[in-house]
Amino acid sequence: MNLVDTNLEMVEEKLLLLKTALNCVEPCVYNREFVENELEKQNVKAAMEVKNDEVHLVTMTNEMSAQAVTILNNMITTHQIEIPSDISALVKLKTLQDKLNKLTKCYVVKIKEYFLELTLFVGDHAKLIEEAKSYLESCCPDSRVLEFTPGVTRFIAKYWLNGESCDLVPSSVSTKVLEQGIEFTGPPDVLDTVMEKLGSKKLDCHNLSYSSPKLSTLLKEMKWKAIVTLLEATHRCTVTASADSAVAPTKSRFNERNNALNDIAKVSEAMFGKVKVKIVVGDITAEYSDVIINGVTSDFVLSRGTVSSALLKVAGTAMQDQCNNNPVMTYPAVAPCIRVTNSFNLLCNHVIHLVTPHQSSKLAKHIKDSMEVADMMKAESVSIPTLGAGGIGLDCGEVASAMCEAFAQFAESTPSCVREIRVVVYETSIVEIFKRGITVCMGLTNYLESCWLQFKHDKPQEDNLSIQIVCDDQSCLDQVKHEVEKHMKSVVVTKTISDDAIHNMSDHDRIEVFDIACDGLVNVGLQQNSITLQGLDENVGKVYELVRDKLRDIKYQPTNGVWEWSFGGNKFHPLPMRVCQRLENYKNSGGVNVIIVYGHSLTVTGMDCEFNGIKGKLKQPDYKEQATSNDLPSNWNNMEGRSCKKVELGVGSQEYIRVSQLFKNSKPRCQSIMKIERIQNPSLYKQYNLRKKDVKEHMVSAHPVERELFHGTSQNDADTICTDGFNRSFAGKNATVYGKGSYFAVDSSYSMDYGSSCMFLANVITGDYCQGHHTMLVPDMKPGRDRRYDSAVNSTTNPTIFVSFSDPNVYPSYLLTLR
């Protein structure tokens, strides 16, 4: 090779580069021709030869040799490519350097600390640089996430990635356990191999699902954690549980109702049927309703009274003239207390002038009448002031209650036009009184009922618990599954209560059971004669006892009548039967008593009560007050001012003969009759007739409503019965075979078995009857009806013994004294 003496080392270096380039590129001719062409363009006479992997550059002179070297320097460029940090260790490998040399047609590849240096021909450099970059990118580690369930993820991480990492995952691949699976990072070709190995492995999984209130708390218990630790230590498995927790209620169902009732007093409007009642503060003279109701005195002088005089001032004297001489309407026709006039300068269409009574007890009827007049006049909206709370001086609470009662009665009459009533309060200081007063009755009669009924099918929110067992051996899986199921059966339990009282539960009773279960975080199922409780063992145990207490209360429901309550006005509303029972127990105890009604506290002091901060009155059931009829038997003697009178019958009278014949026909023993007395007790008789009328209206069978039956007793008890009537509290003194009530027989011989010296022939309301039994405290409920049977019997097909559980259902008509 002909070389220039000067710059010999540089020439040799360039030739070495050229040799490297020519030996690494296919075809070699491409680069050789490229170099020769470039030299020829510069008029450099030079030739290249490749012999034994050596490049020979032949020139004519040293000057041409130097010129050729310069040309070669211009043909070669150097470029640096930044090495990604995550493959910096990889590119230092000699194999990577060789691959880059071949791929990019480079003269030289040098790897520096943070970059790759390429030396290459100028003509190809742009394309070759991109190829080098692409190859570097292909060498970057790949990340792949395999998604598994939490249980499978735990198993792979615990047993395959740790114990078997040498076989499954090489050192060039890193792993990371994620919430949704496992992330593998490494060279793509290596990852392909790992994925293939994972796919060839087999896992056995079993999923268990449970639903129950508060089930998520199980995962926090030490007992559960200990069981899982033991199973995973003794078996090659993972046991993984997760819970979908329901949002825990911040308040109990009872408290929820309490708070809702408190909120009633804060609202400014309420619905009475289809009529909306609004409470507003303002000037009634500026009301734009179709009708304004104005309270006036009985002489209809509109200048008297604060509201009336204000309306007159705006409307003008023409309104007084029309009211006196030619009203649009008067009501009623005789002694009218309502006159209607035009509105004149007022914004409404008409004004109803209503004589306001001085007694709050009469106010409700007058307001209702004025509402009906407004409806007759096709008015859709009515504005009414707080009638009687001003000049007349009626108590604001009483006025509010009377207005509420009027609105309720008016709404019940299904008005055809009126849809909105605006109660205009003139002083802000009494707004809250009217809000509370007007909404209280709505709350106690409508809200409480609807509130309880809407919760009828409620149940506590459930947690869903999922347990996944993962093994790589089926026999191991079966063993672990058995242990987990065994534990869960001891944690989530079901208990069934069977009791005859369940069949007699009212809607309110059933709703209370739902509430008890809901607050106790237990599911409840109500069947005809059983109650099923399901939930955590501890919770079910507590609810079980509460429901048992509830059923005991139901068994002791009273049958003498229903207590009622009122919170303003004269309208009383019935209380639940079990509350009546407690009130009967408390009425003679005195002091202050607290009873739970609809989930709220009812504080009772005598006949006064307070319910959720609202004061009211109680009304005791008294059939004596209700029995106002003067229809007494025509054969009774004069009472001579006495409340009870015994009249001895003449032996030859038709009445004596009839009664004695009934006795003789009733299979008596040897005793003969000494005397027969008619019992005259108007109070008991009226109670009896009132009850008989009620029973007759509700009978479903064709049985007679009453029967004449015998009852044996002693002389001392006979006197008490004549005065006070039969008392079922003495049940059990002789027998309770068919229930704990008062016994009456078709045959007098039955009563004589107990050593009776006296025999009553009593009128007994037997009505619809059911089969009695020794534990019966009250008759069963009639199927499909919210009412009990009227009596119990020894045989429903051929009854000869009747048991009465209600004292007013019996009247002691005749007393027979026996020898």
Kindly list the characteristics that best describe this protein:
819 residues; alpha+beta; eight-stranded mixed beta sheet; six-stranded antiparallel beta sheet; 37 strands; 38% helix; elongated; disordered N terminus
Topology, element by element:
Elements: H1 8-24, H2 28-41, E1 46-51, E2 54-59, H3 62-75, E3 76-82, H4 94-104, E4 108-111, E5 115-121, H5 125-138, E6 142-147, H6 150-160, H7 165-168, E7 174-177, E8 181-186, H8 188-200, E9 204-212, H9 222-234, E10 237-244, H10 253-264, E11 269-272, E12 275-281, E13 291-296, H11 306-315, H12 317-325, E14 329-331, E15 338-342, E16 350-355, H13 360-376, E17 381-385, H14 396-412, E18 420-425, H15 431-454, E19 463-471, H16 474-491, E20 492-498, H17 500-503, H18 507-519, E21 523-526, E22 530-536, H19 537-555, E23 564-566, E24 573-574, H20 577-586, E25 592-597, E26 600-605, E27 608-611, E28 614-619, H21 623-626, E29 645-648, H22 654-664, E30 673-680, H23 682-698, E31 706-713, H24 715-724, E32 742-745, H25 748-752, E33 758-765, E34 769-771, E35 791-793, E36 801-804, E37 810-818
Parallel strand pairs: 12-18, 13-16, 13-17, 17-18, 34-35
Antiparallel strand pairs: 1-2, 3-5, 4-5, 6-8, 7-8, 9-19, 10-19, 11-12, 14-15, 15-16, 20-22, 21-22, 23-24, 23-28, 25-26, 26-27, 27-28, 29-30, 30-37, 31-33, 32-36, 33-37, 35-36
Helix pairs in contact: 1-2, 13-14, 14-15, 18-19
